[in-house]
Amino acid sequence: LILPKLFYFAQLLIYIFAALFLVAISVNIIKNIKMNLPLKTYALIKNASKNYLSFVIFGTTMVLLLAFIKEFDVFIYYKLMQLVLKILPSIGNEAHFIGLSLFLFISNLLLQTFLILTVPLMVMQKRSLVKALGRSIYLGFRNFLSMFTLIFLPFLVYFPVTLLKSGAAKLADKTFPEIILYITAAGIIIAAFIDCFTFVCVTQFLLDK
Fold first, then answer.
1. For residue 197, what are the CA distances in angstroms to 4, 17, 18, 192?
2. How far is CA 158 from CA 13, 125, 195, in A?
3. What is the full per-residue pLDDT of the chain (209 aa) written as tens digits?
4. Running DSSP on this structure, what letter comes out for residue 18?
5. Of the candidates 18, 113, 115, the residue with the CA atom closest to the CA atom of residue 64
6. Which of these, 6, 26, 1, 3, lies nearest to 193 by C-alpha position?
7. Can you say whether residue 79 is alpha, beta or left, with left for phi > 0 and alpha for psi between -120 and 50 degrees?
8. Is the dihedral of CA 153, 172, 182, 16 positive or negative?
9. Torsion angle (degrees, nearest 10) of CA 152, 71, 10, 183
10. DSSP state of 85
11. Distance (Å, rounded) from C-alpha 106 to C-alpha 109?
C-alpha cells in the first residue's frame, strides 16, 4: 500500500507546482482565441510565470483546505451516523461507505464552486491572488447555481473513480493486489482530463460575463 500513497503525494506535488501553472497557460490560450489574439508560446509561458509563486501558494492552500474539510466531514458524518444508527441500526457498511463518499463529494464541489475562478481571474483580469480569491468567492455566491452545475457535471464522471479508490484495499483482497495501482493511475489520468474540461468551462463562463 506504500506505492499508492507515493502516487497520491506525487499527484499533490504536481498539482501545486505544475498543474495550476499549466491551467494558467490554458486559460490564456482560451482568452487569446476568444479575442482573436496571436498565440505565442514564449509570451504565454512568460505571462503565467509572473504569477507562479501565487499559483504555488494557492495550490498549497487548496490542498490544506481539502485535507481540513475531509477531516471535518468525517467527524461530522460519524456524529450524524451515530444518531441515524439509533433509529436505523440495520444500515450496512456499504451504505455507510457510499454515504461518506457522497458527503465528501458534495463538500469538495461546494469548495470548488467558490474558489475555482481564482486562477482564471488572476490570468484574465490581472488580479492579485487575494483580490482574485475574493472575486471568485463573490462570483460563486452570485452565480451559485450556474457554477455548481458547471462543476457538478464533470466531477460526477469522476465520482465512481473516487468510490473505487476509497475501496481499493478491499477490492484488492477479493481480486489481485495490483488493481490498487491500476485504480490509482486511472484516477490520476481521469482527474487531469476532468480538471482541464472544468477549467475550460469556467473560463468560458467568465469570458461570457
1. 25, 20, 17, 9
2. 20, 30, 10
3. 576 677 778 888 888 999 899 999 999 999 999 889 899 999 999 999 999 999 999 999 999 999 999 899 889 888 888 887 777 666 666 677 778 888 889 999 999 999 999 999 999 999 999 999 999 999 999 999 999 999 998 888 888 877 777 776 677 777 777 777 787 778 778 887 888 889 888 998 888 87
4. I
5. 115
6. 26
7. alpha
8. positive
9. -60
10. H
11. 5
Whose cell is 475550460? That residue is 200
- Name the pTM for this structure: 0.86
Pull the grid cell for residue 148. 455548481
Q: Which residues contact 176 (CB under 8 A, 6 or more apart)?
A: none
> Grid coordinates representing 175?
481480486
| Burial environment of residue 102 by CB neighbours within 10 A (0 to 12, 13 to 18, 19 or more) | middle
- Residue found by looking up cell 492579485 in the block: 128
On the 0-12 / 13-18 / 19+ scale of CB atoms within 10 A, 26 is buried
- Give, rounded to a whole angstrom, the gap between the first and last alpha carbons of the chain: 46
Q: Which residues of 71-99 are buried (b: 16+ CB within 10 A; e: fewer)?
A: eebeeebeeebeeeeeeeeeeeeeeeeee
